[in-house]
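Hi F.,

I've been meaning to write this up properly since the lab meeting, where we talked about keeping a consistent format for the predictions we share between groups. The idea is simple: the sequence comes first, exactly as it goes in, then the structure tokens exactly as they come out, then a line or two of notes. No screenshots and no reformatting. I'm using this chain as the first example so we have something concrete to point to.
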Amino acid sequence: MSSSEVVSRLIQQIYQVRPDLKLPKTAIHKILFKVRATLPENDRERRHLPFYWYKYGPYSEVVESSLDALKIQGALREEKTQTGKTLLVLNARPAVPDSVCEDASAVVGRIVREIDPYDIEAFVNRIYRNHAPYEFMPRYRVDYLAPFKDCLASHPEGQRTLNQWYPGGGDPETPDVDRLEDALYRCEAVLVEEPLFERFNEEFTAYVSGAGKAFDIAREDESIAYPVIKATYASAWETWYAFAGGVRILDGGHDAYYNGRLRRWEQEYREALAALVPKVSAYNRYVRESARRIPSREPDERRKRILSSLIEGYLSG
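Output, unedited:
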């Protein structure tokens, strides 16, 4: 049996277990990656599930083509949500896939029953934490980008508080700039030390420098903070996309099935990296220009008293 036939049957097994599921394509990729990771290394179904790590986690060209085939056959259909997101929905209840290995079928069932379809991100985050080949990946994708997204969502443009970005200025459960900055520094500490990533690491360090200044701006002047923080988030994703194009090239980033793609992938990665360099420079320039717009402030009364007492103490000494 071909890989496409095996994978198509495994996909149908997902909907056999829970016919009511409505899933984005990326979730199906992650479910089958988890199936592959759970099966014993000598299991014959594993070789039919080749993956590589990319922009949104583990991805399989075989899974992608099998999903397309199931849509053409009418087994699955696409359904749009009110927010414009595309979900794959069961079009006709599938027959039990009788040629899927019993072990693989049991693994699919166990994984699918544990999924919360309303919180797929939590499932994906666990995959990053448990299976990503390099520590930088969960630290950046899960500990930095995901909280950053939540931070922006919980502090919409135009909202005014004492300072919506500073600790204590908003909901204490919401990641603030201090936590984001700490998470970013932890990412920098675990960069992938491979020759392929030397230039990327330099650009990442440049981004970290700019982001540190951006977070300082958010602490100092709320009036210009939102566009600066938003630009920092956008630059964070551009940086991630460049990284993701490279990590799949490394031995730990792909299955042997994709070895024939490596030369093309490296060319694409180097082009993406070349495009990232001016983007990071433009971002840092924007942050510096924004910092200059912060008006100098007169010291408040408390600071004046502290400064006065220090001077008096120095003179009396």
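Notes:
The first helix runs from residue 3 to 17.
The CA atoms of residues 140 and 193 lie 15 Å apart.

If this format works for you, I'll send the rest the same way.

G.
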